[in-house]
Amino acid sequence: MEGCMQHIIRKGVLRMELAKVNIEELEALLRQAGELFQDREAAGCVKIKGEADYVTEVDYRVQQLIRGRLEADYPQVQFLSEEKTNQEIDKSGLVWILDPVDGTTNLIHDCHASCISLALMERSEVVLGFVYNPYSEELFMAQKGRGCRLNGKSTAVSRAARMEDSLIAIGTSPYYKETADKNFDIFKRLFMDCQDIRRSGSAAMDLAYVACGRLDGYFERNLKIWDVAAGMLLVREAGGSVLAFNGAQAGNDMVSDIAAGNSVIAGLLTEEYL
Predict the structure, then answer these.
(1) How far, in Å, CA of 49 to CA of 174, rounded?
(2) Domains of the chain
(3) For 174-229, what is each residue's pLDDT tens digit?
(4) Fewer CB within 10 Å: N-end or C-end of the chain?
(5) pTM score of the predicted model
(6) What are phi and psi of 219, to 5 degrees?
(7) Sign of the four-CA dihedral 259, 262, 263, 267
């Protein structure tokens, strides 16, 4: 067997040399963890990590539940998450990547635009990704080379070929307010050219919506790997592109600036606006 792992998809199970990942059990785990989003008392227990950067008791409880199950079932696989230190992570191996609550500010305000993002990375390449919205009970899942699904049904990116026909999601990079002038200049130019713009406050959800064609494109600066690892796979497996702002294929870096959409819209974003 070449390398430290190989995977074969068969009957809902991702078979690897070091672990066997049961897709159905993972989906059930995410749904169970999503129930914690309904605890408004825990959502109100807020700690400030930095400028416009918050963590709640819900974040910690979701992470504790998912991490505990993953580490018990797959002790050989490393665990990387927003709410832990990650200096020891070796991205050349097997790594779970979790954002327990993507859209924490939305959760604090009970905006119902938050989700759980979970990905599995093999030798710096994401091979499995989930984005779960507990409010709508929509579960997006993608396996490398096997497409993207929403609650079991195949999805595809939109066919928009012109910016004037496109609905574009933006990200304001709220932790980096020094980029506001540059960002909002781009937003204005784009707003004048596209159908309209949207801002959800959840990168993972925006990427999932690109992957099912609800949004035609999305871009944002300074995204962390746990924000986008699963969502980038969703978009690519749905037939779309995820690019760096310079037009190259986006990688799985710890911090990234990305533009996503079908190949035409992602290309237009990077070539004409970013």
Answers:
(1) 13
(2) 8-154 (3.30.540.10), 163-273 (3.40.190.80)
(3) 889 999 999 999 999 999 999 999 999 999 999 999 999 999 999 999 999 999 99
(4) N
(5) 0.92
(6) -150, 155
(7) negative
The set of residues, in sequence order, having a beta carbon less than 8 Å from that of 197 and lying 6+ positions away, is: 167, 168, 169, 170, 187, 190, 191
Rounded to the nearest 10 degrees, the angle between the axes of helix 225-237 and helix 203-211 is: 0
Single out the residue of 121, 93, 69 nearest to residue 230, CA to CA.
121
What 3-state DSSP class applies to 132? strand
Q: What b/e readout covers 200-225, taking b as 16+ CB neighbours within 10 angstroms?
A: bbbbbbbbbbbbbbbbbbbbbbebbb
Q: Using an 8 Å Cβ cutoff, are 147 and 164 in contact?
A: no
Query: What number of CA atoms fall less than 13 Å from residue 104's CA on the CB side?
Result: 25
- How far is Cα of residue 130 from the mean position of the Cα atoms in its chain? 8
Q: d(Cα 242, Cα 250) in Å, to the nearest integer?
A: 6
Residue 115 and residue 202 in contact, taking contact as beta carbons nearer than 8 Å = yes
Using DSSP, state whether 53 is helix, strand or coil: strand
> Structure tokens of 96?
């779970």
**Spatial separation of the C-alpha atoms in residues 215 and 85, rounded to whole Å:** 33
Amino acid at 109: H
pLDDT at 19: 45
Give which of 165, 258, 251 is closest to 215, Cα–Cα: 165
Q: Which residue bears the tokens 């059990």?
A: 25
Amino acid identity for residue 112 in this structure:
H
